[in-house]
Design a protein that fits this description.
The chain has 497 residues and is mainly α. It contains 18 helices and two strands. Helix 9 runs antiparallel to helix 10, helix 9 runs parallel beside helix 16 and helix 12 runs antiparallel to helix 15.
């Protein structure tokens, strides 16, 4: 039974944990994170065939991806705030349940409108990782927290690497609805596991939910991400896209003004504007941009026809297998990230991860014709992503109160999402402007791919610079490290003023 809500910032009475359930906390939460990433990835192998299977246009089918992106971006900070207020396990279970309902609807229907609505429901699962990280902070002792948070952050890449080849195999040998029945079963298993193994966190911040702020953020983010995701298709200079960007700027400015004047805001902007938190969000946006280009470009590059002179003509199944070593690497390097953060601080880990991402793109630029070099470069980028993504929530945990962990990490994940959406649009724009005809079909040139790698590498270096500029790195016990104690004290004094 859930514990009664405590006073703001204070943990309520905690029930004695069951030994087996306590041991399963990390595996169950990690399973939820992997499942979320798999759900977001499984539709990719279907995209070329969905227009025929659903008797719809390619533009309509693209909304099966766009709807998930928009819903995830909007719901992640909202559900994070709800978790801080009403209970993290409760909200986490609800997010997984919505994701599972969406999968069931996809399994039952071939109507494109139903599929788009179902994929929007699945976007709620984007909040799984920040909610889980918040639970880990509340439930685990400090000595176990770093490695658990690092593993939780890595589940996004692990699930994506597993989901693509799994979905491709199912689609190739079975009816495409079978894939969604399989994910529905896994979703039910995930909901049941979370409800049984995870106890409700006693740390809450009782307050009134900011409905107006939620609506304002939803409207502003929808306009922004819709313009970014559809700009290539509608035209970046088209009235629709320019109107969306103008509306996004106006709506988000009004939302910012409203949040600063609300006693109990959806997002504590006074906290966000602190250098420790704000620069962490900037680094998250840049890292999301740099990381996402790897998956996008690798998949297209290895599937390009051999007639291009550089393409390998691989199937979608083989493409997924090319990305699989990166997922395995993320699993193996997550504890390494935790150890580096414990020894040197998470901002050093974040900067190192971003630098490794840049090195991975140097490998990609050096040789993108041989399969083993392509896999090596993609794996190096995945290694850097593991270090960076594992450090980001640790930075947030050390910079915000326990009662705002889920909402602050939700905003951080939102910034990653915006970075990934921007990366997708930027890569598409680069490849579209560097094409040649192969068999009468416009195909991106190798030069276009190399430019995309260079762009992502430069953004990764910018992420490293942002990481190194984060002030006042703290030790695992929350006290400032010796080398930054004076600077941290000054920042604390300024922030508390």
């Amino acid at each position: 039974m859930d514990q009664p809500a405590p006073t703001a910032g204070q943990p309520g009475p905690a029930a004695e944990p069951h030994p087996l359930r306590e041991r399963l906390t990390i595996p169950v939460l990690a399973f939820g994170g992997i499942l979320m990433a798999v759900m977001q990835t499984v539709v990719v192998p279907l995209l070329p065939d969905l227009p025929r299977l659903t008797h719809s246009s390619a533009g309509a089918v693209s909304w099966t991806v766009t709807a998930t992106l928009l819903a995830g971006a909007v719901l992640t900070p909202v559900l994070g705030r709800a978790g801080d207020m009403y209970g993290k396990r409760r909200v986490l279970t609800g997010a997984l349940a919505l994701m599972t309902v969406g999968s069931v609807l996809c399994a039952l229907s071939s109507d494109i409108a139903v599929l788009i609505a179902a994929r929007a429901l699945q976007g709620a699962a984007a909040s799984v990782v920040p909610l889980s990280i918040s639970i880990l902070r509340d439930e685990l002792p400090p000595e176990r927290r770093g490695s658990a948070v690092a593993l939780m952050s890595s589940t996004v890449g692990i699930g994506a690497a597993l989901g693509l080849p799994l979905a491709a195999l199912v689609v190739q040998y079975y009816d495409w609805h079978t894939m969604f029945w399989l994910t529905s079963f896994l979703g039910v298993l995930g909901v049941a596991a979370v409800w049984w193994a995870i106890r409700e966190s006693p740390v809450r911040e009782p307050s009134r939910f900011d409905v107006l702020g939620t609506l304002g953020l939803a409207a502003g983010l929808t306009a922004l991400l819709l313009g970014v995701s559809q700009g290539g298709q509608w035209g970046w200079g088209s009235p629709r896209v320019l109107g969306l960007f103008g509306a996004a700027a106006l709506l988000l400015a009004l939302w910012w003004w409203q949040q600063l004047r609300t006693a109990q805001p959806l997002v504590d902007l006074h906290l966000v504007t602190r250098p420790r938190v704000g620069l962490s969000h900037v680094a998250a946006l840049l890292t999301g941009f740099a990381f996402y280009a790897n998956s996008l470009v690798t998949a297209q590059l290895v599937q390009a026809p051999k007639a291009t002179g550089y393409g390998l003509g691989l199937s979608i199944v083989a493409t997924g297998l090319c990305l699989l070593p990166g997922g395995v690497t993320m699993l193996l390097f997550s504890p390494v990230s935790a150890r580096i953060s414990a020894a040197r601080g998470p901002r050093v880990t974040l900067a190192l991860g971003a630098a490794v991402i840049a090195c991975g793109y140097v490998v990609r630029i050096a040789d993108s014709r041989d399969l083993w070099m392509i896999i090596l470069g993609a794996t190096v980028v995945s290694t850097g992503t593991t270090l960076a993504y594992s450090a980001l929530p640790t930075l947030i945990l050390r910079a915000v109160p326990a009662t705002q962990t889920a909402s602050a990490n939700g905003v951080n994940v939102l910034m990653r999402t915006i970075g990934q959406a921007t990366s997708s649009a930027a890569v598409a724009a680069v490849l579209t402007h560097h094409t040649s005809l192969v068999g009468g079909v416009p195909i991106a040139t190798l030069h276009g791919y190399l430019l995309a790698f260079a762009m992502a590498g430069a953004v990764a270096l910018a992420a490293a610079a942002a990481a190194l500029s984060i002030p006042g790195d703290r030790a695992p016990d929350g006290t400032p490290r010796a080398e930054g104690r004076a600077e941290s004290a000054r920042n604390d004094a300024l922030e508390g003023a």
